[in-house]
Amino acid sequence: MSYDYDLFVIGGGSGGVRAARRVAGLGKKVGIAEESRYGGTCVIRGCVPKKLYVYASHFSEHFEDAAGYGWTVGETSFDWKTLVANKEREITRLEGLYRKGLEGAGAELFDTRAELRGPHEVWLKNEDRIVTAERIVIAVGGTPNPHKDLEGHELAIVSDQAFDLTELPEKIIIAGAGYIAVEFAGIFHGLGVDVTILYRGMEILSGFDDDVREMLHEQYEEHGIKIITHQVFSKLEKGSDRAIRAHLSDGDVMDVDQVFLALGRVPMTDGLGLEHAGVELDQRGFIKVNEYSRTNVGSIWALGDVTGREQLTPVAIHQAMCFVATEYLDRPERPDHELIPTAVFSQPEIGTVGLTEHDAAEKFRNLEVYKATFRPMKYVLPNRQGKMLMKLIVDADSNRVVGAHILGPDAGEMAQLIGIAMKMGASKADFDRTMALHPSAAEELVTMYEPTYRIIDGKRQDD
Ligand code: NDP
């Protein structure tokens, strides 16, 4: 049987582009289709523009702190349109690099929507033509949950639009308290917007270590970000003076310029033609894959956010690399999802690797918890309030560090490096014998000699 392509990839985001580029680089005939812009969520409407906006929003703090260091800063002003335009220039540059990388490797790019028509068949919408491929990779990613059950949801924005608002709002409510809500709350606050987070649960950032969650909550409130917990919207409607009138579940009403829904992401499987090939979904609607990212159909693989595994760019790229090694290099590799370092670019930032205290206490019977909270040196002269947190969780029986949680400036950068040590199986003794780098915040990680408390059989024991 001969096919038009050795590999056809649907979706030009992090996972899809990596798979297409690597396989084309091996001399195989590869096609890739993207209906929006190459680079996908991360480059176009996610990680990259988000980080640029985080940098932009830090300046208000830098200007405030300058006086403590002897600087006089003149009158400052912020122009949202300039930021949006500069961001656009940068993501266009990156998009160009993605395209160039694919072309350079010899892949054929299609700027069109593509859908499955069978186990080896892909329909290209712009050309209304079906192409065939020996292997097909689905890497179409996800999209913000539009929360269609909410009356008036169409008045709200989601993260895709937040980057390109025509004007910066004066007052915004962000619903949800996960990565996106918390990061955008910091961004908008730093740019001078009045921000409220509305969360259905008890504490922001479920799934993160409780100390980190509480400390970030406290610091957000100290900065002036309002956090309303145990509540959701009951409906949204057009307001009179302000754009939107938001009704909360306890009967309160808030008039704001923007409502931002950051309530998780859903896979982009609608109309993808999965039924033509018989590709199965899991109960949550994500494409079901085995440990090698293969679907139930032998010729079709799925990578990245559409599979519902950790929704992170490096994870999608890693899954793509494993797919290439397994299918084209005769070197079967399963993606390794253990000990993924992650950061939340809140302000202050969170960096984390491994288990939370809660999860570690369920897994290990004998834990040591090391904690240091202190004011970062950088805050002292400007008299900025706010504490930094360093926390290590150690399985006392093996002495292995099983969780590291940091809140404070550059926490993400630190988590990346601790991730290496933890992946190598570092023990607490390894941390202790590592020389401190002074003066730094990170040195606290290697100078916490005595446990702050122990957890034995799930119960905290304070000495
Ligand atoms: P998250 O899953 O992180 O957070 C979703 C939030 O919405 C949670 O607070 C959740 O509450 C709440 N929620 C979900 N459904 C409802 C509902 N029906 N009503 C009310 N509240 C609801 O999703 P995000 O959208 O913030 O981000 C999506 C993913 O993108 C992340 O999980 C992450 O993998 C990735 N991402 C990573 C970033 C990074 O690496 N820095 C940055 C941004 C995104 P509850 O907790 O109670 O379920």
Automatic annotation (TrEMBL):
Record key words, sorted: Disulfide bond, FAD, Flavoprotein, NADP, Oxidoreductase, Redox-active center
UniProt similarity note: Belongs to the class-I pyridine nucleotide-disulfide oxidoreductase family.
Top-tier EC class: oxidoreductase
Name the record gives this protein: Glutathione reductase
Organism phylogeny: Bacteria, Pseudomonadati, Pseudomonadota, Alphaproteobacteria, Hyphomicrobiales
Known cofactor(s): FAD
InterPro entries: FAD/NAD-bd_sf (IPR036188), FAD/NAD-binding_dom (IPR023753), FAD/NAD-linked_Rdtase_dimer_sf (IPR016156), GSHR (IPR006324), GSHR/TRXR-like (IPR046952), Pyr_nuc-diS_OxRdtase (IPR001100), Pyr_nucl-diS_OxRdtase_dimer (IPR004099), Pyr_OxRdtase_I_AS (IPR012999)
Chain ranges of the FAD/NAD(P)-binding domain: 5-320
Any one GO molecular-function label of the UniProt entry: glutathione-disulfide reductase (NADPH) activity
E.C. code: 1.8.1.7
PANTHER family: GLUTATHIONE REDUCTASE
Domain Pyridine nucleotide-disulphide oxidoreductase dimerisation residues, every copy: 340-448
Superkingdom of the source species: Bacteria
Annotated catalysed reactions: 2 glutathione + NADP(+) = glutathione disulfide + NADPH + H(+)
Role played: Catalyzes the reduction of glutathione disulfide (GSSG) to reduced glutathione (GSH).
Transmembrane keyword on record: no
Subunit structure of this chain's protein: Homodimer.
